[in-house]
Write a structure and sequence with these properties.
With 154 residues, this protein is of the alpha+beta class. The protein is 49% helix and 16% strand. The radius of gyration is 20 Å and the shape is elongated.
Length: 154
């Protein structure tokens, strides 16, 4: 038995949302691919729009999702990591750069508080100037980490 876990939530032009999933037949094939279904629904919903649409996807950041969005829209779509995966990624990065567990907890408390409020610039500034890390026994600033985060997310 197959269970579909991919759900696309599309905001409708007149308000509300459409929830889209693909279909799998008994042989495990997808007679109508989810990408085709989403593209069709977007055209149906927004086909008469004269100005460009702002497309944003809230995902776990998986590469196959990015590829599917590129196939659907023909351009790179802005990706926002869902809260769970954003938290996981930030914790992983802090584990690599925080010199002590206490420092890591302090950094994470500030970063999560700011991210929850949408203050991404405050977090990037904090990473550039407010964090000291240990690398090969030397204390360094996290300029590289904040640059990497800025570049990857734009």
């Amino acid at each position: 038995m197959w269970v579909r876990t991919e759900v696309v939530v599309l905001e409708k032009k007149q308000g509300g949302f459409a929830y889209l999933t693909g279909v799998i037949d008994e042989a495990g094939n997808e007679p109508v691919p989810l990408a085709a279904l989403v593209k069709s629904k977007v055209i149906q919903e927004y086909g008469d729009e004269r100005k460009p649409l702002n497309i944003v996807a809230i995902t776990d950041g998986a590469k196959d999702i990015r590829g599917r969005l590129l196939a659907i829209f023909g351009v790179t779509v802005v990706i926002i990591l869902d809260w769970f995966h954003l938290g996981k990624k930030v914790k992983q990065l802090m584990s690599m750069i925080a010199p002590t567990q206490a420092d890591k907890e302090t950094y994470l408390k500030f970063i999560f508080c700011q991210l929850w409020r949408g203050q991404t610039e405050a977090v990037l500034n904090y990473l550039r100037t407010g964090i000291k890390t240990t690398e090969s026994g030397k204390t360094i600033r996290t300029d590289r980490l904040s640059r990497k985060a800025s570049i990857r997310d734009h």
